[in-house]
Amino acid sequence: MEPPVRELQLQTRADDDDHHGQNPNTDTSATPSSVTNRFSLPKLIHYKWWLRVMIYIVFIIAGQSAATLLGRLYYDKGGNTDNLMYSYGLLYLPVSTYSLLCATQLAFNALFSFFLNSQKFTPFILNSLVLLTTSASLLALNADSDEQDSSSSTKFSKRKYAIGFLTTLGASAAYALYLSLLQLSFQKILKAETFSSVLNMQIYPSFVATCGCIVGLFASGEWRGLGKEMNEYYQESKVSYVMTLVWTALTWQICSVGLLGLIFEVSSLFSNVISTLALPVIPILAVIFFHDKMNGLKVIAMVLAIWGFLSYIYQHYLDDLKHKAHKSESSEIISRRIVEVC
């Protein structure tokens, strides 16, 4: 996770061009000031990059947490519609088994990032992946009581259990592959280092996905049940039903922008790490808004997640130090060239 160095390289080339084409009669008394301005520009770019990364992190954690809580509110009040592949997992598996399978998403992402995105794994990054996966697994073990798990596991046949297992595992692998392919698209196809490219990558696929969902909604006949769900099952008013769905969609879009932004600025693996970091935040918010119980496993999961996140950030700090050393060396080379020209 090194800040972009292209700006520094371009500035270096511009300096070379300026000095090779410099007029001998030009007053050189302003040279130190101009050199200072040129050297301060990469530093400004560096801080702007970190600011963008922090904004995207807030988008992911806030968006994912809010969307998950709104989804919880939707189901608590009587809603009964969900994502297809993950829905089969929720339908046919115990919650703890389902959550453990979802936690494999980070491992899948690490695998795909290694082969598709040339991701380098250091001890700190590996430590972060292990801690975050362990944190998610602890939350999974705490997700349901033994009574719920035993009733869920005996309710369905082995065939349905296998379907739930495979669809959940497939959904986790497919999403991890999607993140790695997004990074590959940014690197190899789009090659446009602008925020508009992030928005385009969000808007157009979302539009196509929305059209697909609408076609599926009407083709399956499920649209006939929406009015009944709103009028009979949902416990709150119609306005509350609509607003819950609208804000759930908006918060997921905010999360997706943060996800794409981190893929664009850093990597798909780091984006998935931040997404996993949000998992232990959600139970804390559920305690506040839904009066869930807080226990030792949730606290341990949160501590492990923060530890894993800090481990990943520390590796980025080391990369940043290496980048600064390289930039300092480049600055010294430029300074020597300026002295030679002057």
From TrEMBL:
One of its GO terms (cellular component) is membrane. It is found in: Membrane. Keywords: Membrane, Transmembrane, Transmembrane helix, Transport. Residues 12-34 are annotated as: Disordered. It comes from the Eukaryota. Coiled coil: none annotated. GO terms for molecular function: purine nucleobase transmembrane transporter activity; purine nucleoside transmembrane transporter activity. Residues 22-34 have a biased composition (Polar residues). The chain crosses the membrane at residues 53-75, 95-117, 124-141, 161-182, 203-221, 241-262, 269-290, 296-314. InterPro entries: PUP_plant. Its main location: membrane. The keyword Cell inner membrane does not apply. It is a multi-pass membrane protein. Belongs to the purine permeases (TC 2.A.7.14) family. This is Probable purine permease. It comes from Cannabis sativa.
